[in-house]
Amino acid sequence: MVVHVHFDGRADLLLQLARYVDEKNDIRGTLAPVEAAQNGTELLARLAGFLADYNPRIHAVVRMSDTLRHGDPDIEQAWRDRPLAWRAGSRQVGARLHVWKELAPEWTVETARDWITAMSSVRLWEELVMDLAWSKRKFVKHMTTNLQHALLRDPPVR
How crowded is residue 32: how many other Cβ atoms within 10 Å of its Cβ? Predict the structure, then answer.
């Protein structure tokens, strides 16, 4: 009952918890190196590093929200707020590649946004790192290579 005094229900509690975790983990500061990248190769490598560092920090909240959202329409709606913010960031990555003329011709900014959003999901990180026991280094290496070779017009030579 105390939850309802401070929050507008469980959905609001989870949403505020996710925002608190982002703030506590300084998501803006953590993203700064990604945003400071000067070219597509660097941008995508830094994005892979960000995912390897940040996903473990938010994993518990994402897992809890994902579990609770099934069967609770309010939590389902709150759950949709998070991916919208992440899709906006993914779109910025695609747009930067496009502006730099580094985005491979088969991609649009929007399709790149969708693919980056899917590839950067906590679920994918969980599958590779937690379930299949990939090291952080292995995750970053393969995620970087995958992002660069999928999205860049001229990806680095392996």
Answer: 12
